[in-house]
Amino acid sequence: MTFVIGPVAVRVPASSANLGPGFDALGLALDLHDEISAEVVDAGLEIRVTGEGRDGVPLDETHLVVRAMHAAFDLLGGRPPGLRLSCTNAIPHGRGLGSSAAAIVGGVLLARALVAGGDELLDDAAAFQLTVDLEGHPDNVAAAFFGGLTIAWVDGAAAAVERLDTDVAVTVFVPPSAVSTEKARGLLPESVPHRDAAVNAGRAALLVAALTGAPHRLISATEDRLHQSYRAEAMPDSYKLLRALRVEGVPTIISGAGPTVLAFARGVADAAPQGWSVHELDVDQAGAQVVSG
Ligand SMILES: Nc1ncnc2c1ncn2[C@@H]1O[C@H](COP(=O)(O)OP(=O)(O)OP(=O)(O)O)[C@@H](O)[C@H]1O
Ligand SMILES: N[C@@H](CCO)C(=O)O
């Protein structure tokens, strides 16, 4: 195999998973992006990070983008002698906005772009499968990879995705501290009452309709009984804001594993607790894009 020296760059969107009832299935790509560039060098590993995570992420082979790149290089046929990486991050870490998915999707697409003929050696289906294997569940990586509204699932071990168009406008309320996905998943029960599962199945179906043409259904469609209340103890202020907005009739959910709160509305920024940041965002329609090479 032959490496492209580069640099190559990729732009990857943030994503909100679950969207209320669609646990581990629904994803929405958001107009907030990380940009990562990479080039092949003679030896070693050099990582430069600006923006989100600059004081927290490791600058060695355990860096998530590097781990994803190495996994992709291994599938493509071999690793380059050395790598130089530059990350400009806008997606906050550990907040439920798909930072890990963006890092994984970005890393896989960068590695593919750094190999001559990479697109044929690792097509989109195989690249998507790798991102799901690395992330462990498909919802965020599906939206980050393909943009728009995504329904993703895993059949046996095989990941699949259906992408839909939506132009819903959202407001995200981002608290100052993180809750890791690992911790939030640890709060979920092994089993749930049948009636709760039934409510979620109906609302998840309704949510797809609401986001693709029936927005007046959003308040009913965003009800969840499978994860948000179980995780409230790890993010009490987020849960309080969620309840307050919903009581006002604003369709609101916990984004991904939290603690970010997402409202399918504009003009609600004033509801933000002190110290939180607020972003009014549109849907990213393009998904991850290799922007130079
Ligand atoms: N751009 C990045 N570069 C390096 N590491 C990253 C990057 N983004 C995320 N990570 C790693 O992933 C961790 C955050 O992943 P986690 O799954 O807990 O949260 P999230 O992906 O932001 O939220 P969610 O999965 O709920 O949307 C960070 O603490 C960091 O270790
Ligand atoms: N579906 C995932 C999204 C976070 O990665 C969860 O809620 O745990």
UniProtKB/TrEMBL annotation:
It comes from the Bacteria. GO terms for molecular function: ATP binding; homoserine kinase activity. Keywords: Amino-acid biosynthesis, ATP-binding, Cytoplasm, Kinase, Nucleotide-binding, Threonine biosynthesis, Transferase. ATP binds at P92, H93, G94, R95, G96, L97, G98, S99, S100, A101, A102. GO terms for biological process: threonine biosynthetic process. Pathway: Amino-acid biosynthesis; L-threonine biosynthesis; L-threonine from L-aspartate: step 4/5. It catalyses: L-homoserine + ATP = O-phospho-L-homoserine + ADP + H(+). The keyword Transferase applies. Its EC number is 2.7.1.39. HAMAP family: Homoser_kinase. Catalyzes the ATP-dependent phosphorylation of L-homoserine to L-homoserine phosphate. Belongs to the GHMP kinase family. Homoserine kinase subfamily. This is Homoserine kinase. The lineage of its organism: Bacteria, Bacillati, Actinomycetota, Actinomycetes, Propionibacteriales. The gene is thrB.
